[in-house]
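Record format v2
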Amino acid sequence: MSIIIKSASKQNIKSSEITSETDYFNRREFIKKSGILVGASWAGGLSLPASAKSSEYGNDFSNLKKTPYGKGEKLTSFKDATTYNNFYEFGTGKKDPAKNATQFKTDPWSITVAGEANKTGTFHLEDILKHAQIEERIYRFRCVEAWSMVVPWVGFSLADMLKRFGPTSKAKYVQFDTLFDPQQMPGQKRRVLDWPYRDGLRIDEAMNPLAFMAVGLYGHDMPNQNGAPIRLVIPWKYGFKNIKSIVKITFMEHEPVCTWNVTAPKEYGFYSNVNPLVDHPRWSQATERVLGSNFWEPKAKTKIYNGYGEQVAHLYKGMNLRKYF
Amino acid sequence: MQIKEKIFSASFLKPLIFILCLLPFTLLILNAINNNLGPNPAEEMIRTLGNWGIYFLLIGLSISPARKVFKLNWLIRYRRMIGLFTFFYVSLHFLSYIWFDQFFNVDEIIKDIIKRPFITIGFICYLLLVPLAFTSTNGMMKRLKKNWGRLHKLVYLVSMLALLHYFMMIKADYLVPSVLLVILSLLLGYRVVLKFKI
């Protein structure tokens, strides 16, 4: 429902920041249309089987390019994917983000690019999106808490975006920051984590074709509780690496600060690649509970790199995965 | 006082409290049947049962102080029932872990108990509760005499370990177990003050 509530605040944006009137209004149109579509699919989502195709949930994005990623995967229901979220900025309970993020304002939105790149500065989201080839990719998502889901994300290649900022040869890593705004994000009023939430990747990880910037899911604009308006999706890493509501991208020479790594360095490493052989100190990572699966059946076996080893294993060749967990 | 005593000893109150104590379990079963436990029902079930285990522990521990502070002597009649309900919810908590988390995989369960400190602590808690439940009958009370009271002091250790178990499974937000810790500290602190007449 969050999508409908997004208020139009065009007057706050300088006209120079706006891509073009037509593009701008196109995005507005999607949002307007989605009001009806989301309403319908929300109600319908309750009765849709978990195996429903993403197209059955409606489509806010014109010319959404379908891709072969995740073909044949059984999708998690829209309802489960949007009501069971870890997004501590809106509360630490799984149901909190869907409840507390309804008023979250994601338009206008800008991203600051800093550090070792040629084109730094603050960019309006519309400007970033206008270059992007928006497509749908179905990815498995594995949370560090040993549950998983399958989500049809809408977005674009992370590498394509990063390259446009012209990272220099010193850009060995890239860091992302989530918005810090305790007024809008009530969870930030308590220091549960070291706000703002930060996470990062090695530049070759970020440039891997699987790395994805998502602006929507199930054919819809990104719901606030899932990290609107723009979030990272790195399907071979644990869920918390997929930082949400991004406002800053910094190219850097040294390894970036990662919030969970700072909170509990022995439990959450910089890499945090999905690995059934390296347990979390407090629980096993060998199996996972697939959301929406029959709970009378045993949990599913977790695959190394969440099953994306063919595409990413070479990035970690020769590394001791127990040391660099 | 006399009238009050009569009301509270009335035969209808015991079954009423019994039904109240069963309410969380009933709701959980109804929610499970109606597919109302959310996207991760196994987790919801395990957590809910664990929470109620701790709540009942705290309710049980508050009976003696409440009797003394508010002069509600009749409360003692319900202490055994509360204690047994603690054992009931903790048993179901452990069973739901064995069933819906591990699917009776004995090797994995043993590995988990040995390897993971928070599960080790939880398991010790449960082991310590077993003799308390089995010696809760009148016959056992008579047979154990003075030792019965000594044995049942174990519940203080169990309550502390139970909260430790809760704290150890938290990722970042310690608010709820902290509130429970404050309550437990008050309940145990009252006894310390009483014993040493501080």
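DSSP finds nine helices and 13 strands in chain A.
Chain A touches chain B through 28 residues (CB under 8 Å).
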